[in-house]
Amino acid sequence: MKIAIDARTMGSRPSGVGMYLNDFLNQLIKYDDLEFYLLSDVAESEYIRNFEKMGIPVVTQGKKIYKSAGVYSYFSFVQRELNRIKPDIFWEVNTVIPVKLKGDFRIMITVHDMFPIEYVQYFGRVYSLYFKYGLSKTLKETDMILYNSRQTKLTTEEYFPVSRNIPNCNGYIIANPLKKTWENSDKDFFLYVGNMEKRKGVDLLLKGFQKYRQNGGTRKLVLAGKMQEDDIRIQLQEAMDKDSNITYLDYVTHDKKHELYASMSAFVFPSKAEGFGMPVIEVMKFNKPIIASNLPIFQEITDGSINTFDIDCSEAEQINNLAAALDGYNPYVDETAYRDTVNRFSPQKLGKTVHDFIMEQKI
Q1: Residue 197 to residue 216: CA distance in whole angstroms
Q2: Please, what is the end-to-end C-alpha distance for the chain in angstroms?
Q3: How many CB atoms lie within 10 A of CB 312?
Q4: Short-list 289, 290, 301, 279, CA closest to 224
Q5: For residue range 68-91, what is the model confidence (pLDDT) as tens digits?
Q6: What share of the chain has pLDDT > 70, as a percent?
Q7: What string of H, E and C letters represents the secondary structure of the chain?
Q8: Any residues with CB less than 8 A from the CB of 247 and at least 6 apart, and which?
């Protein structure tokens, strides 16, 4: 079966969606009955270049897509390539297909969340309307849906009842085993890794950490991830100017991220909206304490084995709750519970789940 994939989220400095594709593709290429073609705006990341080295065809438009308007020209490129490749399936990993694609192929999309509809304040009204309209159009042409969690499936079906009638699979997100052994230590700092944006609770983290320090807390804070919002950039700089115990590392490599996991005191993930939350599972492989917001998704994927703080309250209360969690989190880690959770998201298990789903839908 020939599958063409919109791989632009993996083309340059991939974050959550790009790494989701990378991890599943690494499993799916092991199956001889699947043949892949990657389409992207550029092919700059180590991840997409690795697939080129393995002989997976990668075709690029040749220029990065920055603005939403550029997406339409990009999909003109995608349509031309689909006409040439003539795949059995086109896989849109980034949920929305903004144009109607023509061709004798089935369309599979991955739905990661409904946040542009649920949390308009983080995305803006224009993008929220675009997402809602675009996904309603996309679903009319969609033959197969991959969800990254049960929570995402339920929310999608609430907003788009038509999705209930489309064959679907809960693929979750892959948790890859560590490729090397890291020696754990405690260098007395809290760590956040993820996109630098309000939806991820970075604004809350900076305020909560400052409150923790005012209350006598002594640990430092290290943040790493791609800067997404000017408001966060300004808030971060102001916080670092006031407190030299806050460090921002920008986007970090895979190995650097693992080095940070191994040497931190605890991982802090104060997300206000999350489709899955892969960093939480990644950290479990290092048997380090985790402090996260009390979102339902974290209960779903961890079965309550981590520290949480309440965000179902005012911002002032959220800040106080996080500061208290930083000061009084439980450092004990249930390694058995961590191991059981990680095993639920093993590459082989989830790769087979998605492969079997694809083959079951074969015409």
Answers
A1: 27
A2: 10
A3: 10
A4: 279
A5: 668 888 999 999 999 999 999 999
A6: 99
A7: CEEEEECHHHCCCCCHHHHHHHHHHHHHCCCCCCEEEEEECCCCCHHHHHHHHCCCCEEECCCCCCCHHHHHHHHHHHHHHHHHHCCCEEEECCCCCCCCCCCCCEEEEEECCCHHHHCHHHHCHHHHHHHHHHHHHHHHHCCEEEECCHHHHHHHHHHCHHHHHCCEEECCCCCCCCCCCCCCCCCCEEEEECCECHHHCHHHHHHHHHHHHHCCCCCEEEEECCECCHHHHHHHHHHHHHCCCEEECCCCCHHHHHHHHHHCCEEEECCCCCCCCHHHHHHHCCCCCEEEECCHHHHHHHCCCCEEECCCCCHHHHHHHHHHHHHHCCCCCCHHHHHHHHHHCCHHHHHHHHHHHHHHCCC
A8: 220, 221, 222, 223, 240
pLDDT at 334: 95
Structure tokens at 14: 């991939």
Q: How many CB atoms lie within 10 A of CB 158?
A: 13
Q: What are phi and psi of 92, to 5 degrees?
A: -95, 105
Q: Report pLDDT digits (tens) over 314-363.
A: 999 999 999 999 999 999 999 999 999 999 899 999 999 999 999 998 76
Question: Is the predicted pLDDT of residue 8 greater than 70, yes or no?
Answer: yes
Angle between helices 46-53 and 16-28 (to 10 degrees): 20
Burial 22-48 (b: 16+ CB within 10 A, else e): bbbbbbbbebeebbbbbbbbebbbebb
Distance CA 312, CA 307 (A): 16
Q: What is the mean pLDDT of the chain?
A: 94
